[in-house]
DNA sequence: CGCATATTTGATAGATTTCAATTTATGTGG
DNA sequence: CCACATAAATTGAAATCTATCAAATATGCG
């Protein structure tokens, strides 16, 4: 349970909080001083067990994490993707009985931060409490948008939308990355989009044949951003930072 | 802009908070003392406009409210249903640029509570801040479950699940209401389940013909709770209070 | 009674899944 | 660096599910 003497491990988390919330220098220090315990997970490995009562939240330091739920038949639905710098289950602090799972999609480094420490910070600093709440509120918006696509979007829309979103999140807000690696298996892509792996493959094929985007070996190359955004009903301006 | 001299209007909101969070008597009083402004909405009326920057949250006092997002074609996807006592957009306090819409599904009475007042309470009382955060965290879980059904559930599953969920929420936790009125048009049901109104109708028909549940004129009668729960992949024990 | 809204039904087209191979990458030990 | 084993991607054909289009019935309300 090493204290994070190396301040930098929590730095990206602080950055992310600051992108949406305002914190005083003291509060920033408090965040950076949080205890953290690093662990590494191989791809396809679940982080913690589903249904576990967890005692810490997972900050992604490197790699990619998927949040998911699954039904009785074991079909899995990803409900969020978390890049480095994101706390994947901050809400666990106030709902430790939380019922979604986390899965390492790529080789991933996680910093585990005790709920207790996060909760104490929130109790002490109202601005931090508000910042944490705001993170969950942002989650709600993202999940709502995801539900919209799952419920109302065709296969092409869902796949294209996901690629658009990741392009923006990997790049800068103004300039979506047009070439990036997305360490998602087509099988995992199907879990994210609520489709079959076979159908994801065919959808990608048609997008490729139309010269819109290439997805090969987990490398994305967007050749026609405009068209992809239309297909994905993706609106950069209303994208949730 | 009447102060709520009638304390009772915020009472159900307090009850709901207390069902998940612990608050001191002083904090309870603070909640009950929140300013509230009542308004009535007819069915199918949107509450506030999509994209508006809102300045207050909407507590449902009577009726039924649907939270939704819609795509460019105007297809609507409901992402949550809110019964009396629930604050439909508490997250608006920390994300006033919030991007989902609210729609009165039945004739509905709303108590509008200023964000500013809610935010001030959260800043003053850390337990209230935590309770509010916990509400958003619970939202996240509900939305995740909803995304699972939208992405991985068949039509029957989605419809059955919704009926199960509402049965439990209208009744007590242990004893789902087997006969209740759910003021949802089949068209609205289709917005909730991500299906077509026509297909919802056929799905309801088949459930009816199998003697599982009757949905007629917005009245639900569940004749076989067990079967409905199986169809809906509904697990009472893991249902999110 | 009569319009407006909601439900129901039929027929058909279209999208997605399922099942079953086959081919293409990736990783590992020799 | 090659050969084999495993995981991932790709393809075809057929079955299912869901949407679409169009019309007929039923219900709520003034």
Please name the defining characteristics of this protein:
about 240 residues, alpha+beta, about 40% helix, about 20% strand, disordered N terminus, DNA-binding
Can you put this structure into words, describing what you see?
The structure is a homodimer of 241-residue chains. Chain A is α+β, with helices and mostly antiparallel strands. Helix content of chain A is 41%, strand content 20%. Chain A contains eight helices and ten strands. Chain A has a four-stranded antiparallel β-sheet with strand order 2-6-4-5. In chain A, a hairpin with a 5-residue loop joins strand 4 (65-70) and strand 5 (76-82). In chain A, helix 3 (115-124) crosses helix 4 and helix 5 crosses helix 7. The longest helix of chain A is centred in the middle third of the chain and has 27 residues, at 126-152. Chain A is globular and about 55 Å long. At the A-B interface, strand 4, strand 5, helix 3 and helix 4 of A face strand 4, strand 5, helix 3 and helix 4 of B. The first copy, chain A, binds a DNA duplex (30 and 30 nucleotides) through helix 7.
Task: Write a concise synopsis of the structure shown.
Chain A has helices spanning 11-20, 25-32, 115-124, 126-152, 155-170, 186-193, 197-209, 225-231; strands at residues 37-41, 46-47, 56-62, 65-70, 76-82, 101-104, 108-114, 179-181, 213-216, 219-222. The first copy, chain A, is an alpha+beta fold and 241 residues long. In chain A, the strands form three sheets. Chain A has a four-stranded antiparallel β-sheet with strand order 2-6-4-5. A three-stranded antiparallel β-sheet of chain A has the order 1-7-3.
């Amino acid at each position: 349970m090493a204290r994070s003497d190396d301040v930098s491990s929590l730095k990206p988390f602080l950055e992310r909080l600051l992108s949406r919330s305002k914190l005083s220098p003291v509060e920033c220090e408090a965040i950076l001083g949080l205890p953290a315990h690093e662990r590494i997970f191989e791809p396809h490995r679940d982080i913690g067990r589903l249904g576990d009562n967890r005692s810490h939240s997972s900050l992604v330091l490197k790699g990619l994490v998927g949040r998911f739920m699954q039904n009785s038949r074991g079909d899995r639905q990803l409900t969020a993707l978390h890049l480095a710098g994101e706390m994947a289950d901050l809400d666990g602090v106030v709902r430790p009985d939380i019922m979604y799972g986390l899965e390492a999609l790529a080789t991933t480094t996680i910093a585990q931060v005790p709920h207790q420490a996060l909760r104490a910070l929130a109790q002490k600093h109202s601005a931090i409490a508000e910042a944490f709440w705001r993170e969950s509120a942002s989650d709600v918006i993202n999940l709502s948008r995801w539900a919209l696509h799952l419920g109302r979007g065709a296969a092409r829309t869902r796949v294209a939308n996901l690629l658009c979103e990741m392009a923006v999140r990997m790049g800068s807000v103004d300039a979506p990355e047009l070439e990036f690696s997305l360490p998602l298996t087509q099988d995992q892509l199907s879990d994210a989009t609520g489709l079959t792996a076979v159908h994801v493959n065919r959808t990608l094929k048609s997008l490729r044949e139309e010269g819109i985007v290439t997805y090969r070996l987990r490398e994305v190359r967007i050749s026609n951003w405009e068209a992809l955004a239309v297909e994905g009903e993706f609106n950069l301006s209303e994208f949730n930072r």
